[in-house]
Structure to design on (423 residues):
């Protein structure tokens, strides 16, 4: 287990799109190994190429800012490494549906 | 379905209130909306009768019912129907209250649930100064009861280990052992927010209101955000829905989290407590139903494993 060089808390390993990153459970700083920043940059540019073109701005108004991805939500140190963000299959949907409605 | 004496009594009370006058009765049979030890709810037409938990403390419940009836909470909490003067009615020894029927969230379509309305209602509730003295919000008590229920259902079972470890890492106030510390206390809180706690009144198209004041009281308002926060942190609630909920709460001036930036310093303890509560109930219920936890329940248990693995010195507040 790596210790954070800044606050000396433990760092946990997460996998983001196939890139291993270490995040500090204390200050939430991120440690990248050699080549990992480049991998993330590459993934980002691939994502940007896939993004749909901006809709034409209405006339007589200044151009709208370029559309941005929904800002990433912060999560606690103990959050799921993979923020699925999908409801999954039918059984999972049904079970989560029940959980949404119960004490 | 067998009809218990409480259900029959509630059906008669609701019907008697919905169907005033001696005209011929063509009312449909009363409908049981919930029948649990912590609340039995029966509907007849436009009226709903609720028998509160048998162990409810009457003065505390009376204070909570007057809160829902207070004009200050109009448009936030569903108000009860005016009760006759004198002490509240009872059915089989349980305190009874009468409410107008409100239309619930469609349980088959959680994606269409009114997350923004829920967030805005909570922000308004948390910003409302308490109109009169109230007992503490019961969130931590319910978490402690869930853990006790798990331990009773699975005594000594190693599967309960991570849930208990995550529980022991919480500060005493979140385990209902001490009062909430200082500035986080004293806010009006719902105490048990989930999607079953919202109804449209008048049904079917009126505004959304919060119902079920049995756990309502004073406390840390982060508790009311903590269940959706826990679902999001466990990887169940999509980030976009979580952000819709959180951003609406902030835009409405809700005091539970800082207005911008990372909300987790305020949410962390309560979200960990709700994660433990949900995982504990999942283990208790799956045992009672003689099955393993399903995939969704397992994600909440997995979150407890990660919480339990956090070094204790990283917790924002030390367990005491």
């Amino acid at each position: 287990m790596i210790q954070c060089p800044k606050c000396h808390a433990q760092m946990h390993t997460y996998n983001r799109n196939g890139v291993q990153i270490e995040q500090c459970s204390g200050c939430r700083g991120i440690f990248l190994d050699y080549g990992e920043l480049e991998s993330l940059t590459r993934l980002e540019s691939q994502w940007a190429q896939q993004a749909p073109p901006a809709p034409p701005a209405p006339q007589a108004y200044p151009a709208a800012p370029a559309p941005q991805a929904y800002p990433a939500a912060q999560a606690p140190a103990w959050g799921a490494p993979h923020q699925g963000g999908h409801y999954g299959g039918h059984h999972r949907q049904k079970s989560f549906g029940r959980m949404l409605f119960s004490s | 379905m067998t009809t218990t004496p409480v259900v029959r009594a509630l059906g008669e009370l609701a019907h008697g209130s919905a169907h005033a006058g001696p005209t011929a009765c063509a009312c449909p049979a009363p409908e049981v909306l919930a029948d649990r030890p912590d609340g039995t709810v029966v509907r007849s037409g436009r009226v709903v009768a609720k028998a509160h938990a048998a162990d409810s403390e009457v003065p505390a419940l009376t204070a909570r019912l007057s809160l829902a009836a207070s004009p200050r909470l109009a448009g936030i909490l569903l108000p009860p129907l005016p009760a006759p003067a004198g002490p509240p009615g009872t059915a089989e020894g349980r305190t009874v209250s009468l409410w107008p029927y409100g239309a619930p969230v469609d349980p088959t379509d959680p994606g269409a649930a009114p997350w923004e309305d829920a967030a805005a209602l909570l922000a308004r509730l948390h910003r409302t100064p308490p109109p009169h003295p109230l007992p503490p919000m019961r969130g931590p008590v319910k978490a402690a009861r869930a853990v006790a229920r798990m331990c009773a259902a699975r005594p000594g079972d190693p599967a309960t280990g991570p849930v208990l470890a995550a529980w022991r890492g919480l500060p005493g106030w979140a385990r209902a052992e001490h009062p909430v510390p200082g500035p986080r206390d004293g806010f009006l809180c719902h105490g048990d927010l989930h999607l079953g706690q919202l109804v449209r009144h008048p049904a079917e198209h009126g505004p959304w209101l919060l119902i079920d004041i049995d756990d309502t009281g004073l406390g840390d308002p982060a508790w009311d955000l903590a269940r959706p926060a826990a679902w999001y942190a466990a990887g169940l609630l999509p980030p976009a829905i979580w952000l819709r909920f959180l951003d609406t709460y902030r835009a409405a001036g809700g005091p539970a989290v800082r207005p911008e930036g990372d909300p987790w310093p305020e949410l962390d303890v309560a979200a960990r407590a709700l994660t433990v509560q949900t995982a504990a109930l999942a283990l208790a219920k799956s045992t009672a139903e003689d099955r393993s936890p399903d995939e969704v329940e397992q994600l909440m248990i997995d979150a407890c494993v990660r919480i339990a693995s956090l070094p204790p010195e990283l917790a924002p507040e030390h367990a005491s």
Observations:
- Residues 1-48 of chain A form a domain with the Ubiquitin-like (UB roll) fold (CATH 3.10.20.860).
- Confidence is low (pLDDT under 50) at residues 53-69 of chain A.
